[in-house]
Amino acid sequence: MTDIASRRAIEAVWRIESAKLIAALTRMIRDVGIAEDVAQDALVIALEKWPVIGIPDNPGAWLMTAAKRRAIDLLRRDKLRGQKYEEVGRSTKLLYSEEDLHAAASGEIGDDLLRLIFMTCHPVLSREGRVALTLRLLGGLTTEEIARACFVPEPTVAQRIVRTKRTLREARAAFDTPSREELQERLVAVLEVIYLMFNEGYTATAGNSWTRPLLCQEALRLARILAEIVPHEPEVHGLAALLELQSSRLKARVTPAREPILLADQNRSLWDRLLIRRGLAALERAQSLGKPLGPYALQAAITACHAEARTMEETNWMRIAALYEALSRVMPSPVVELNRAVAIGMAFGPAFGLQLVEQLESEPALKEYHLLPSVKGDFLFKLGRMDEARAAFERAAEMTRNERERELLQKRAASCGLTD
């Protein structure tokens, strides 16, 4: 394996395993900042050794072993003895056998991830800090990627992450599942971070994969757990419904070569009908609780319109547009307005959609959002304005940091030339 191929493989493993590593290390060290540093140290060791010895059969367990050894070394060097060191010594052993490696990879990682989410949603943290830290630790995003996702400068994100870690350390935030009362206080934040975690898996911000299915699966698993823990909150079921319905389309979103497939071109027979049924049932549960639908339930209702349509042509775009109107009231956002423009364009024609998109071009928050020129290009293409459509798709391709998405947009730009 070449050095380049080896590095790409290691980066792929890191994106999958980093959140589990950090969660397990936080349980050991009780400091999320140090846990992330130790996990990064394990990555450096892998970058040095794997090009020589090859990728291990169980890379996640290999990284966990290296990280735990590094954690113990760090505790020794810093003379952190006493109760914390004794607890680590009792609960942690160095892993040598294949059986041990398998146990490390399949232990209490799921519980650790849930505890990590509760920790990053601690009430002492600002919303911006929670979002940045969660995307970093659970989504595996770089500071640059988080900045693009949040529409803020990169130095601002870096400062937020440092400040948030320091706040958690100073508050001595416990790495435990909170009590029922504490859970209720943090519920909105917990739902948000699981939602963000899923979104990063559904459409990756950067890299050479358009989707990260394992991240989606983990977010869906956590949403299901929350629906059991807090059964009387409609938004919990709304989020579960949304993730079930979105997950049903994952297999149809990429070709065997992992190239993106847009919604209009997807083979709907590949949509997972079991996940759709689960999603619709969760949505019905949210609606049955007698409270106004929140942003997650409304998004689930929108996704349900797609799930229930046998073809693109049968989609109830007028209902989708109405649901986006309702969503814009409970969760005002330029991105929601852009999605509403798409729905209106599909319901009433591309000229109406284009008019709304052009009004959004002056929105500062969408200045670096690649989907704005992408949507504009689609409407221009449907209106036969090929030169303008090509320019819009090329602009979108320049703005995205996802390689697969860039290739798709470049192909769409090239297709405008073929129809001249």
Helix content percent band: over 70%
Structural class: mainly alpha
How are the strands of the biggest sheet laid out side by side?
1-2
How would you name the oligomeric state of the polypeptide chains in this document?
single chain
| Rg computed from alpha carbons, rounded to a whole number of angstroms | 23 Å
End-to-end separation: 44 Å
Average pLDDT confidence is 85
Task: Count the DSSP helices.
Answer: 20
Protein name: RNA polymerase sigma factor
Organism: Paenibacillus zeirhizosphaerae
Domain DUF6596: 186-286
Pfam families: DUF6596, Sigma70_r2, Sigma70_r4_2
Outline the structure in words.
By secondary structure, the chain is mainly α. Among the domains are: 1-107; 316-420, Serine Threonine Protein Phosphatase 5, Tetratricopeptide repeat (Alpha Horseshoe), CATH 1.25.40.10. It contains 20 helices and two strands. Helix 14 (295-308) packs antiparallel against helix 15. The longest helix is centred in the first third of the chain and has 27 residues, at 3-29. The model is unreliable at 88-110 (pLDDT under 50).
Top keywords for this entry?
72% helix; Serine Threonine Protein Phosphatase 5, Tetratricopeptide repeat; two-stranded parallel ribbon; RNA_pol_sigma-70_dom; mainly alpha; 20 helices; 420 residues; single chain
Summarize this structure briefly.
The chain has 420 residues and is mainly α.
What is this structure's SSE topology?
Elements: H1 3-29, H2 32-53, H3 59-77, H4 82-91, H5 98-105, H6 109-120, H7 127-137, H8 143-150, H9 154-171, H10 180-202, E1 206-207, H11 213-229, H12 234-247, H13 273-288, H14 295-308, H15 317-330, H16 334-348, H17 350-360, H18 371-382, H19 386-399, E2 401-402, H20 403-418
Helix pairs in contact: 1-2, 1-3, 1-6, 2-3, 3-5, 7-9, 7-10, 8-9, 10-11, 10-12, 11-12, 12-13, 12-14, 13-14, 14-15, 15-16, 16-17, 17-18, 18-19, 19-20
Domain RNA polymerase sigma factor 70 region 4 type: 117-168
Organism: Paenibacillus zeirhizosphaerae
Domain RNA polymerase sigma-70 region: 21-79
